[in-house]
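Researcher: Please generate the 3D structure of the following complex. Treat every line as part of one assembly.
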Amino acid sequence: MKRKQTSTGANAQLLARVRALSHRAVRDREDSFWIEGIRQFVQAYDARFDFSAVVYSPVLLKSSLAEMLLRRLAAAGVPRFKVSPEEFRSVGAALHASGVGAIVRQRWTPLDVAARRSGLGWLIVESIRSPGNLGTMLRTAEAAGMTGVIFVGSQCDPFDPVVVRSCMGGMFPLPMVRATPEQLATWGMRDGVQFVGLSPTADRLWTQGPSGPKVAIVLGEERSGLSAAMQKLCTTTVRLPMTGTADSLNVAMAASVMMYEFVRRAQPPN
Amino acid sequence: MKRKQTSTGANAQLLARVRALSHRAVRDREDSFWIEGIRQFVQAYDARFDFSAVVYSPVLLKSSLAEMLLRRLAAAGVPRFKVSPEEFRSVGAALHASGVGAIVRQRWTPLDVAARRSGLGWLIVESIRSPGNLGTMLRTAEAAGMTGVIFVGSQCDPFDPVVVRSCMGGMFPLPMVRATPEQLATWGMRDGVQFVGLSPTADRLWTQGPSGPKVAIVLGEERSGLSAAMQKLCTTTVRLPMTGTADSLNVAMAASVMMYEFVRRAQPPN
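Model: Done. Output below.
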């Protein structure tokens, strides 16, 4: 009986910790975030994220792949917590409780390290209001093959549960960087990186800007656009043509079109 | 006192009707839908939608443009219902109640009529599970300048409140059509329209398919893809390259990239 009680106490403590991770301040302080569902779990495992604790409900879990990964993580010494379906649902946000979740360490790549990578080009996010938009954008960045995503300042949190959910873990393999406009300016000077802002008032079309491994697409906030510091950094701005009465494209759509313009130009000629 | 009571009774009746319009069956039967907020209201007015009734709360409404349109609609004989902030909030879904909403007639363009229009090309939607994705896609279609959007069968409802909300009324100027695969086949034969399916297993890249006013991009359901009837119709399929571990792009992102490929090719040469 004693053992059982201890276990329940440990579960309650862990579930409280999971709930607390829905708050930005707690995520920042613990340098961790919560993932949930088979897809996110497998993606985080494959991308070699560092698991702090695994939560599972054998009654709910219906994936032999997830079960195998659970065993591997346990063998590697990651604490795991067996919970009831009710306990799992008390922290799970998904409509259909998958029965698997984990507390995972956030992973940030320093700009200097990331800068050594080569890839299709960079995506820089200054501030995106909607976590759903940010998640979709990260999913496209990974699919398109962008080198990495750089967040200016600390406003955006890619480890927000809504972001993670809306990209379905698709962002995990993508290197993520935090940098100040000053650090970006230094990087630009040192490595010859060009910053291209997306702005509805730009003269040049999105097809007329530079692209490639040494180019970074810079996205500002949905309504207010880029800050003065980031505007100063952008040597080029481009726009997507809009007809009709539409006054703006959804920022995630605009970002996707820009990233696939990079993909298009990187294709070998026919 | 009698007049006041009548007015309250009329309000209650109208608000019940508004609430009922959240159900697809009621929207279909009444051939109407509910719009809410200044932006949707102005967009629907500008696109000359047919207003059946206007609901407004003078206490909440803070837009002189909306107030002017309200007066114009009243002068044109559209019944208007003045409600309290509480009454308005009882039907409003927006976080910040704007104080203006309306019951508007749905507008469908017959395929034969729409087919006479010229534009950038067509978007055909067979079945999109997420109304948010559909709304974002419609907003991009309008911004890109697509000729119109054709819905295959009756599964998708562009007048679903979530669709309307997520495209912020941006879809209103866009002609919307319903057609069967048979009608589309006849149209294709008669007008030489080519149907291009988007499929992750296609051999050709998205840049290698046809584009232009006589080309229709065909999008299937997020997971299951195109039906057999629509696959048969598509003479070409194209794919967007995906690298890394991503197994799919969000359907609205893929659609946006495809539509902007049409925009790109329609640009005059430099």
